[in-house]
Specification:
Elements (H helix, E strand, L loop, with lengths): L4 E4 L2 E4 L12 E5 L2 E5 L3 E7 L14 H14 L3 E5 L12 H18 L4 E5 L3 H9 L5 E4 L9 H8 L3 E4 L17 H19 L4 E4 L8 H9 L12 E2 L5 H7 L7 H13 L4 E4 L2 H15 L1
Parallel strand pairs: 5-6, 5-12, 6-7, 7-8, 8-9, 9-10, 11-12
Antiparallel strand pairs: 1-2, 3-4
Helix pairs in contact: 1-2, 2-3, 3-4, 6-7, 8-9
């Protein structure tokens, strides 16, 4: 039995009981006034409008490549497309807000021209980029890798636009995060940080929050696997849990392989995440994730 003690909303609670909760909890999202019920885990496909994302198969800089990737992901069954224009891999070059917005404008224009109805999340930590993406580009939600730490205007901006917000845990910046991996208990510390921010978001009136433990962001390989073992505990936050482990270093370092070789172990680890309560899988390979979710449904739901 796993015991973790966390101060949540001012009260000290034990997370032992989390192990008795059903694996997947249905949830809903309010998308531009439309209530969308989700009775199964969702698949989020990654589209990077960048030249330097860690997996080169996800890089799409020209319009033809963007259209091809989006169409393939939608055809393969993606529920959400997550589009980003700033690489968060360690050592990636900094991108100005103006360049990030310019890349996103191209990406969103192409995306909406070929897939006007798909749900779109924009991967950004900047409030100004988030506002433009929602108000001018047709995005539906914001995915913030920094959980509001890199732009203190993000929470109020999201609250004002009344859009779903993906609250991820990360320490430092993409260039410094792997030097900040000192935790007392990684699962408990991450849950405590997310719970504090979640309370702040609730006070601002943000109704739809998805939490992301931030696998690979300021955690060692061992810490990533510890969080995976304790993934059920994140259900204490009362939000859908997003898991993004697709082709990441926790896999490639374990087997001494490249990201291009990491599809099969990604599928295996995503399956484990589903059995421990993941509500959304963020992936490079949509078809395989859709198969995984469908088999999970047939076997468990």
């Amino acid at each position: 039995m796993i015991w973790i003690f966390v101060n949540f909303a001012g009260q000290n609670i034990s997370l032992q009981f989390i192990l008795d909760i059903n694996m997947f909890q249905p949830f809903s999202l309010n998308i531009r006034g439309e209530h969308r019920s989700c009775s199964r885990p969702l698949v989020m496909g990654i589209v990077n409008v960048t030249p330097d994302s860690f997996f080169d198969g996800s890089r799409t800089m020209d319009e033809e490549a963007i259209a091809e990737r989006v169409l393939r992901q939608v055809s393969d069954g993606a529920d959400i497309i997550d589009i980003g224009a700033y690489s968060s891999r360690p050592g990636a070059a900094d991108v100005s807000p103006e360049e990030e917005i310019a890349r996103l404008r191209t990406g969103m224009r192409v995306l909406r021209s070929v897939a006007p109805d798909v749900l779109v999340s924009v991967d950004t930590f900047r409030a100004c980029v988030a506002r433009e993406a929602i108000e001018d580009m047709g995005a539906d939600m914001i995915n913030d890798i920094s959980g509001g730490d890199l732009d203190r205007d993000m929470f109020s901006t999201v609250a004002g636009m009344r859009v779903p917000y993906i609250l991820m845990h990360m320490r430092g910046t993409p260039s410094t995060m792997q030097t900040m991996t000192d935790y007392n208990d990684v699962s408990a510390d991450v849950i405590a940080d997310l719970s504090r921010k979640l309370r702040e978001l609730r006070l601002l009136g943000v109704a739809d929050v998805i939490v992301d433990p931030g696998f690979g962001f300021g955690k060692t390989t061992e810490q990533n696997f510890e969080m995976m073992r304790n993934l059920e505990c994140f259900g204490a936050l009362g939000c859908p849990v997003l898991v993004g482990i697709s082709r990441k270093s926790m896999i490639t370092r374990t087997f001494d392989i490249t990201p291009a070789e990491a599809l099969a172990p990604t599928v295996a680890l995503n399956t484990i995440a589903l059995t421990r309560g993941a509500a959304i899988l963020r992936v490079h390979d949509v078809k395989e994730a859709v198969y995984t979710v469908r088999l999970f449904e047939l076997a468990t739901l």
